[in-house]
C-alpha cells in the first residue's frame, strides 16, 4: 500500500506499507502471508477474480488485534496515518472525520478487492505531464488524485476518497479554454475581487454552453468550448460560507492551452486572498498561469453533490493548486514521484474506460 505523507506535507514522499506476500513453491504451488497488523506475517489467501482484478483475505484476523483493545489499535493507527495523537488535533470536526475513517477502514481486516489502475497517457501539448498527485483536503487530510488531459479540459480524479467525495469521482475540472488573469498581489488579497473575476468567467462559460445547445449552425464565432462533455449548470451563485456539510473539492481537467508558451516561463506573484483557508502555508509564491475550473462538493455519504466554481493555479511542472470559491478553501497538489511498473494504459480508449469504471463503482 502506498500511503500519502503526513498532512499537510504534500512535497514529502509516499510511504510504503506491505499488506501481503507470496512465497512461490515447487510444482506451481504457493503460500500467501498477510502482513497486516503488528504481530508478524500470518496465513492469508489470494483469489484471482477476473482479468485485472484479485481479492485478498486474511485467515487469522486475530493477529490484527492488539492487547490494549480498540483504543490501542486506534492510537497506533493514528500515529501511523496522521503522525500525531488525538490530543494534538483540536478541531472537533476533524476528530470526528478521523474516527469515521478508522472505523471504516479497520473493519475490512485486509480482506480487499484490487482493480488495476492505468496511468494517464501523455501528449506533447499537455499543460504539464499528467499523473498522480498528493493534495490537501482540509480536515480530510491528504488524498491522491490523478490528473489527466482530455482535449480542451483537464480532470483530477480521486484515487483515494473520504466520507464526502468517494474515490473515482472527478474532484476538479479545469476549462483550458478559459484563462483567468489574476489581479496584482494587493488586489488578489481581496477575496471579493477574485470572486468577481471568477463569476464573470462562469457566466461567460454558461452563455457559450447555451449558445452551443441552441445549435451549431449559428455559432461559428463561439466554438471555443468543447461540446463533448455536458456539464451541470452550477448557476445560483451561493457564495456564503460553507455549511456543516463539510463539502469538498472535486475533479475535472483539461488539455493544453493555445496561449501557453508566451507566459509559461515567467512567474507571476501569487498570494492567497485573505479569508481563504489552507492546510499548507508553504505554498509557492509565484505561478505560471490560471484557469477557470469547477470543484465537486457534497455532504457526508456523497449526498447532494454539486460542482462549484474555482480557480486552477499552475505553479510548476510538479505542483498546482485549486481555490474552492464557495468553501473559501485552498488545496495544494504535489506530484507523486514514485515510479510504477507496467502501469501505462495500452491505449487512450483503455484509459477512458478505466476512468468510467472506477467512477461507476461509487456513483
UniProtKB/TrEMBL annotation:
<dbReference type="Pfam" id="PF12014">
    <property type="entry name" value="Cyclin_D1_bind"/>
</dbReference>
<protein>
    <submittedName>
        <fullName>F-box protein 31</fullName>
    </submittedName>
</protein>
<dbReference type="InterPro" id="IPR045048">
    <property type="entry name" value="FBXO31/39"/>
</dbReference>
<feature type="region of interest" description="Disordered">
    <location>
        <begin position="205"/>
        <end position="277"/>
    </location>
</feature>
<keyword id="KW-0833">Ubl conjugation pathway</keyword>
<dbReference type="GO" id="GO:0031146">
    <property type="term" value="P:SCF-dependent proteasomal ubiquitin-dependent protein catabolic process"/>
</dbReference>
<dbReference type="GO" id="GO:0016567">
    <property type="term" value="P:protein ubiquitination"/>
</dbReference>
<dbReference type="GO" id="GO:0019005">
    <property type="term" value="C:SCF ubiquitin ligase complex"/>
</dbReference>
<comment type="pathway">
    <text>Protein modification; protein ubiquitination.</text>
</comment>
